[in-house]
Amino acid sequence: MKLDEFPEDIRKYLVPEPSGNMFYRCLGCRGEFDIERLLYTCPSCGGILMLYHQLTGEKKNIEGTLWRRIFDYRRMLNLNPLKGIFRYYEFIAPIIPLESIIYLGEAHTPIVMANQNLEKLVGLPFYFKNEGLNPSLSFKDRGMACALSFLNYQAKKKGMKNLLTICASTGDTSASGALYSAYLSNLLKSAAVLPKGKVTLQQLSQPLGSGATVLEMPGVFDDCMKVVEELSEGYEVSLLNSKNSWRIVGQESFAFEIAQDFDYQVADKVVVVPIGNAGNITAIMSGFLKFLKANIIAELPKIIGVQSDHADPVYRYYLEDDPSRRKFKPVTVKPSVAQAAMIGNPVSMPRVIDLIREYDRAAGQKRIFVVSVTEQEIMDAMIVANKNGHIACTHGGECMAGFVKAVKAGLVSKGEIGVLDATAHVLKFSSFQQMYLADRFPSEFGVRPRKEFKNTPVTIGLKGLRKQPQAGRPLQGKDLDRFTKAGATEIARALNLKKR
After folding, report:
1. 0.70 exceeded by the pTM?
2. Treating both helix axes as pointing N-terminal to C-terminal, what angle do 172-183 and 140-158 enclose, rounded to 10 degrees?
């Protein structure tokens, strides 16, 4: 719709101007810092940062009912910068001018209802939110759209050129960072540091295809993260990991979309998300809290974080019920099919601790839970989901396994509805699916396929035929007729088909 076709009273809100004030706040010393300098840690105490925004002027007094109308009408607005995460402009980064916003088609991913088979298996209705339909095929694009939009804005404002973005990655972050950096190739270049042999070939091809410099190192993600943190503190680079607070605010759009897609009724929803570097669960909690404070939603949904028992430091931390006795300890990770979650020392752990406390206090009860699942449970759930019409990645399988565990443990009640985060496209992890279906999983994963799920190609042999087709040498006439009939007969036998 064109702007003049909207109701007159809503028009002035639909195309926003930059407003308000944004600043970093340290979760340690609570110091506040200006955003003119791109910070990753607190200059005073080294603590981790969160971004905050102060609404000013008329927007400060907008009520929840009006915000809902603004977002619902923006859905119909044909303006590129407001089509993605910035539909919720005032709640993301409202200091960025619209002309600096990068939009590559990210966000507003579908919420797909589980079929009756899956609902019966799990015991409650649920949906997959399919983040694999983002441009680089993962949820990381939400954060990159914000981080690179801010970088684009700052570069234009300050006349900066020849910038280099860098990240540590298990695959998805490097793919997303390289893609969004490539869109700004006149301004910057990108590099990614990956743990050698710990990234699927499909994921490795993505940053290479986008022109990034890919550097492989020994170790796991945690080791690569330490290296890029050192680089970001001592060299002229822009860090694109979730330590970058602009990534977090972009990923808050996941929560905003769930609220809007359920008509802002989320009290009965249970959002299930895998925990890797803990940036995503941080963003989801923060997003729902923002909407609650603005009276856009009336109650907070339940959130369940899931970890594999091969990398479960957050789960272990919350095993202790007494907050005063909790002590975070990094863990040594083991190989996991949920590669993005194979992190033993999450960068955003201080954010998680702070926000869980705030979230439960705002809800008036415990609304955040963390569960642990096995590698076997992850792969079984992924295969079952995909056999029932979904395109869930290993992390979507992790969420489904976690939801099943939460239901059995009584953390989820009858009448509640699950919303499971399928963080990436299943084709990124097709090698794991193939190993499962062909029963070729390395022993260190501890995964054995269920017999009924094994599935490998069946070769149709036509040994009795004197002539068979070859590339560039097609059959013709009677030879083609004989091949067609013989092939149909063999396939009918393989499929146990009956003649009409």
Report:
1. yes
2. 40
